[in-house]
Amino acid sequence: MTSVARKALNIALVQMKVTANKALNLQVAREKVLQASQKGADLVVLPECFNSPYGVQHFKDYAEPVSPTPGESVQALAAMAKDARVYLVGGTIPEVVPATQKVYNTCPVFDRQGNLLTTHRKVHLFDIDVPGKITFKESAVLSAGDHLTQFQTEFGAIAVGICYDLRFPEMAMIAARQGCIGMVYPAAFNTTTGPVFFELLQRARAVDNLFYVATCSPARSEDPKSYPAWGHSTVVSPIGEVLATCGHEETTVHSQWDLGAMEEARTSYPIYHQRRFDLYPDVSQSNKN
């Protein structure tokens, strides 16, 4: 593991209401990103499906390209990052690949100059059937991503996952073993899975790897026909403490990733030097980036 200087990254999670009006969603996102920047944010995170309603019936209708010619959402996100001078984890958008017509749930990430640093396509698709509560099958419309994603900042490398990716500890283990200071997950958990798993999974990913975890959810809509987002966007410390969170309402959560505190935690709890790779494999060595 690499050593880090004692400095702090200011992070903001924009828990915004999402409507069926893409232009309005982009406008609201811009306003909130700029507001977060004015409050000192270095890294701003938008929620999963921030530009469109979340649902298999909506993905194709709202899908747009990321490359070679970016669609309106990617262009808007680039302008937000540049004007706010922040790193922007641009939530997710339904991405269509013109050459194949495949649709992905994709997170574009931008630097402070508005340049597209990387994209993460949701690796683990949300296919679930809880009798009497919720049935959802992203794979009916979406294709799964085929790579893990990290991006560099002056604070250190940060990894990206999307919602259901949080359920799979290997992604976070690989990121931590490869030197990331934390993981960010745009995530639209719902009122069935959220109360049971959302905070628990974040704290587990953080404490198992002694790094920071942040999640950003949409705010819950008052429309009973819309997807019931759980909300509760959260920042968790390397020792599993909830540093900042909220309810289901529209808000922006501000917190810090203190890199000195992370270093101290890794010194106090030296799991990175105690693993037994003679008995089990180091998953970071077999990762396909």
Q: How would you describe what is shown here?
A:
Residues 9-259 form the CN hydrolase domain. The longest helix has 17 residues, at 22-38. The chain is α/β, with parallel strands linked by helices. The chain has a single domain (8-271), classed as Nitrilase/N-carbamoyl-D-aminoacid amidohydrolase. Helices cover 24% and strands 26% of the residues. Strands 1, 2, 3, 4, 5, 6 and 15 form a 7-stranded mixed sheet that branches.
Topology:
Layout: E1 8-15, H1 22-38, E2 43-45, H2 59-62, H3 72-84, E3 87-89, E4 93-96, E5 103-110, E6 116-121, E7 127-130, E8 134-137, E9 149-153, E10 156-160, H4 169-177, E11 182-186, H5 194-209, E12 212-216, E13 234-236, E14 242-244, E15 251-258, H6 259-268
GO molecular function, one term: omega-amidase activity
Family: Belongs to the carbon-nitrogen hydrolase superfamily. NIT1/NIT2 family.
Protein name: Omega-amidase nit3
